[in-house]
Amino acid sequence: MHKCDTLKGRIVEGDTSMLDDILRSIGIFLGYFLINPLLYIGLFAVYLFSGVRVKQERVSFHTRVYARIADITIPFASAILLGVYVSVLTITLGATITLPFVAVLAIIYILFAITAQVRLISPVYVLGATLLLYGLEPLLAGQALFTTLYNILGQIPIIVPALLLAIMMIAEGVLIRMNGSKYTSPRLARSKRGKWVGMHFAKRLWMVPIVLFIPEGVIPSLSFWPVFTIADMGLQPILVPFLIGFQQKVRGTLPETPIRSMGLRIVGLGILFALIAVGSYYVPVLAVVLGGLAIIAREWLYQSDKKRDAALPAYFSNQAKGCVVLGILPGSPVEKMNIAVGETIVKVNGKEVNNETSFYEALQLNSAFCKLDVLNHEGEVRFAQGALYDGEHHQLGVLLVKEDTNLQDSII
Is 238 helix (H, G, I), strand (E, B) or coil? Predict the structure, then answer.
């Protein structure tokens, strides 16, 4: 065989071996992500609350508004994108944990998930509770039940969970502002006066993949697996799914306004807490204070917003003139007409409407075509029109507040 051919063969063989090692390294990296208990805690929580959402939508409208899979797909892209940005920061900081520490976080996540409150499945509460555990060490470390726990926590400097809390709180605020008000779930309920009113529920669980470091040798590595050295210690990157839960009920205004405002306030708190976390490097007790302060502040934001919304008159209710759009069925004719939630339909096929009965009667004037006079959010009238076809679900696909005289459904 020619020497040149032999050399080419060795190069090809070497390239193949290198590619195999790289693929195996990627497989290990993703494999530890896929066996992480936090991922399955998140998926199970989404499975449960998506089922509750669909059931409640059927009670209100005799149909689901969004498929159950929407609770995975709607937050997916924003969670991945933000995970990339946060990972750049955690890599820069060299944030290092241990696998037993991840197990502790998983247990605390489970304890908060048992409450069935999605908003508590969040790093603010989980890492806040973890920091409080650090502060309780003088009281609990001597008890046999907590010996293992404090051996695990003792391997992680307290500034690490403190910084993670601040970073993930900022991330939570960004996600809420960017994605929290999209595809909120409409519902019907009785007001204090016994009238039907509409409201929107925002409920999200983002699974944000974050790159963190663990000491070298804890998991298998190959020659092409990246290993970083900080203070003479080798570190390997792993991918950890952090769960960020959010829920908010809105009845007094359009969903987007208070939800985006909530996101901005959380970002502001996160920046403040980041300063406290940095200060904990010099005064470690500040990290414990941060844990309690973060939980109290986040809970105060939730409760104050809930109280503020309850004090407002219902935005979605029957009016003397026009029908306020409470919701839109995906793929329906009214969605294709670009009708938005919160707009008011004042005329259908040239006939004035003010409730679902008059709406339906006007719709029957032309079973093949529909023309709408719509009052938009700026108070200006615009016109929308579209064809209707036999067999289309509920004909138009607009969700309205139902009347007391008609208890069957509230979908036109």
Answer: strand
Query: Which amino acid is present at 396?
Result: L
pLDDT, tens digit (0-9, with 9 covering 90-100), for 371-395:
999 998 888 899 988 877 654 445 7
8-state DSSP, 240: E
Q: Phi, psi at residue 198, to the nearest 5°?
A: -105, 160
Residue 85, number of CB atoms within 10 A of its CB: 11
Q: Which CATH number fits domain 318-399: 3.40.30.10, 3.50.50.60, 1.10.760.10, 2.30.42.10?
A: 2.30.42.10
Q: How far apart, in whole angstroms, are the C-alpha atoms of residue 217 and residue 235?
A: 8
| Number of other CB atoms surrounding residue 185 within 10 Å | 23
Q: What is the pLDDT of residues 64-75, one digit of tens each?
A: 999 999 999 999
Neighbours of 156 (CB within 10 A): 18
pTM here is 0.86
Among 12-21, 306-315, 334-343, 397-406, where is mean pLDDT lowest? Answer: 12-21
Structure-block tokens of residue 285: 């007790």
Strands 351-352, 381-387: parallel, antiparallel or unpaired by DSSP? unpaired
**What are the sequence ranges of the domains in the chain?**
36-311, 318-399
Please state the length of the chain: 412
Query: What whole-number distance in Å separates Cα of residue 254 and Cα of residue 205?
Result: 21
